[in-house]
Each structure stands twice: as C-alpha cells, then as structure tokens.
Amino acid sequence: MIHTGRNTALAGRQEDAEELRTLVDLALGALRDASTKRTGPVAAGGPGAAASALGRVLDGGGFLTERPEPERLTELFEAYAAGAVDLTHPAAVSRMQCAPTAAAVAAELLAAALNQSLHAWESGPFALELERRLIAEMASWAGFGARASGTLTPGGSISNLMGLLAAREHALRRHGDVTRSGLTGLPVVPRILCSAAAHFSIARAAGFLGLGRDAVVTVPVDERGRMRVAEARRILDGLTSDEVPLAIVATAGTTDHGSFDPLPELADLAAERGIWLHVDAAYGIGALFSPSLAPLLDGLDRADSLAFDLHKFGWSPASSSVLLVRDAQHLRCLDQQAVYLNPSDDEAAGLTSLLSTSMQTTRRSDAFKMAASLLTLGREGMGAWVDRCHALARHAAARIAARPDLELLAEPVLSTVIFRCSPPAEGVPDPNAWNAAVRRTLLTRGRALLARTKVTGTDGEPRVHLKLVFLNPGTTEADVDELLADVAAVARELAAADREPGTDHDRPPADDRLMAS
C-alpha cells in the first residue's frame, strides 16, 4: 500500500516527476503481479467474479470519496490488472484485439501526461503536425495521391460513419447543402449497398446520418462471405427512379470469414455508375503489410474513402482507427470556423488546426502511439507478424480438419478460423446450445477466450460456430494444439453432462458456479 506525499501532483510538471514515477512503478508492479499469478487468459469465475473484485475495491462505497484516498490506488491497480484479459496469452483468441508494442504503450503514457489536443494549433503543435504527416503517409499506403486527406477516429465504426457522411454529401450535393438544410423534403430516397456480411456499423451509420437503417440494401454473398458483384449490379438496375445510391460499401476482411470483397470489380461498378466506393478495411488492412497477402487489397487505390484500424493488425493500443478520403474536398462538410479555436487570420498565418477534418473537438494525440509502433516494427516487421498470424490460422485450420470431433467451416483467408464441435455419436439434444456452452465454460474457467458466430448452412439453417482470431505473433503451434485439445475436452465433458436429465446450458457447470460465488 502506498501513501503519496502530494495529492495534487500533476503529470508533466517537473516537480511532480517523482510522484508520477512512483505511480507508474505501482502500475507496472500490478501488471507484473497479475501476470505471475494468472493461469489463463482471463480470471476464472465469469461476471460474478469481476463484480465481486470491484466490490472489494470500493468496500461498499463509491469512487468520489469524501476525502482523498490515494492509498486505494494500489487496490484499484491490482484489481484492474488481475481482472483484465491477457492479450499476450495464446488462448486469448476471441476478438480482433491485439497486445500493443511496448513502444506504443510508452508513447501512450507520454501522450497522456502531456495531454495535447488537436482542435487548436496551440493545444498541440507537434502532435498536430505528427497526425498530418502520418495521415499523408497512410494515404500513400493505400495508393492515394497528394490530394488525399483523412483523420484519426475512436474506432472503425466512427471511421465508417465519416466515410458514409462524405458519401452522403457527395451524392446529394445537387439537392443542396444537406449538412446545413437537412434531409427533410428530400425528393429522392437514398440507398447504400453493402454485403450481407458487412459490419453492423454500416446500418447504424445510416441511422445516425438521418438516412434510416432501411436505406441499407444488403447484397447476397458467396460461400466465403464475399459480395456477389452481379447481384450488386442487379440491385442497382432494379432501383426506382427516385432511389439514389449513395455508396457501395466493400468489406476488406469480414468479421467472421475474414473475406475480402472483390475490390477491382466493385471499383469498376462504382465508376461505371458514378457511385461512391467506401472500403471498410478495419481488419483486412493487415494484408497490406505482407507481400504475399497484399494482392487481397488490389483495387484499394480506387476507393473514395477507406477505413482501417491499427489496433487490430498494427499492434497499437485502442483507439487507433483511421479514415482516409482520396480527395480532401470531400471533408469540407466538416468545415467549422470557431473564432476562439481557428480564426481565419491564424489559419492564414500557418497556425492551422485539425478541427475541420474531424467530428470531434477535443481530440487526443493517437498518432503518437501509432507512430511509435510503426517505427519500432517497420514494414518488414509488420509484414512478418501478419504472416505469422496467418500461418497460425492455417495451422489451426489443418489441425481442426484432421480431428473427427471438430468441424472446419473453411480455410482461413487472413487470421480468423471458424469451426464447430461435432456432436458425438451418442448425440446432444441441441448442438447449437452445446457449442455455445463450450465457449462459455472455457471462458468462466479462465482457460480460453473464443468468439462465436452463426453461419447459415446450405440447408438454410443458422448454426452456432466458434471462432479463433490470431493477432499474437508470439503464439506457437504447440499453443494452438493445446487450445484445440481444451476445446475438444470440454465439448466431451458437456456432451456427457447433456445426456443427464436437468442439464441447463444457460448455467455454467457446477465448478464454475462455485468459483463465481
């Protein structure tokens, strides 16, 4: 337990540097202790255990105590670290969530201590220039030219929202400035085309933009979850005279299969019809760093807007998301003159802010940590790590395909693997509930973190599947084999229990309930 001498210490102030060092050491100690004690990717016990741990820290009270209690920081730091998911653990394969590089975390600390913002030049001059330069370099990755622009955002959902905002303004400009006048009385019905496997944020963005979720028309996909271009063309041909297509949204790296829509063909279709092409590459951008996988992104340079994350493939702390537009003029819908932030004479003198490229005003310097990771890894290192994660997915797929008790859905495209547990000969009452329970049991026991999804089979029936997402290049093939063995063992255990009367898959097994109590 610590007793700080300065309750009013401010990060970034020289006289308080030692206090900050003490607290950073405390945080690193909590991280070290949790790592030493943890036996799996997450603490056992499920939601009940997490709530109980927080309750012990608060000890019946709240966070805003009557008097300062800095000594409670030890308990808070230790509980947070102990209850966090260990993204470096090889069995943490449930989410597109990476363990960041140490360099990025150090940069995050410095950025937090200095608390720069990008809404006015004097709020973060170096940070502002850093983002501007990083955006220009990222645009070159995509093959965009000197007219490109963009911004960093809190996540892929916001990047997609901003891309569709630009598409809305571009498509509806003949009907006036809808940013100013709104959509009321609009003489046309907007439509957005995306695949049936597109991220849910596309429909949400349509709702946020006043278009309505019903404006989104989903295009059928093939057996690998890729948009069928012929179907997109058919839908466009079938639109009525008052329906206006705002955008075609292509997904580069779908959430489940990791599949890539056919970008060259979709770019041809968008150019032929004069429609905005937005590419959601939040996950799939990783392919760009790998010489062998980069062809998956052929045609990316023809997009009008592009969204991607470096807190997936990029090994940067969240949030590290990016929106790029091929032509800076398409962000003019965000133009904002605020006399206290970006007066025109200051802008003319070079004291420019980034207020007019973002939906946010106060905005942190996310470019700093991203730059730290990029400098640490380089293109060669990024590519090697992406290739390693791809190789792990292929290894997992081969092992699953070779096991009679597991069923592989398809070969992995990037680093995700979809499979399910095959019911034993004796059968189970409900294979979907059984597969879902396998995942929950592994989670509540703290053994493994797997994702789940539903895949509709050729018979039209949706079935629960399990998903592995490999973003940790430090994982070994032996780790993967052990993980799959754990999955199969729990599946056998639950299948045996399932044949007993009174089984309820909505409750964890008895040993899990004991741990959660």
Automatic annotation (TrEMBL):
The keyword Transferase applies. Its cofactor is pyridoxal 5'-phosphate. Residues 495-517 are annotated as: Disordered. GO terms for molecular function: transaminase activity. InterPro entries: PyrdxlP-dep_de-COase, PyrdxlP-dep_Trfase, PyrdxlP-dep_Trfase_major, PyrdxlP-dep_Trfase_small. Keywords: Aminotransferase, Decarboxylase, Lyase, Pyridoxal phosphate, Transferase. Belongs to the group II decarboxylase family. This is Aminotransferase class V-fold PLP-dependent enzyme.
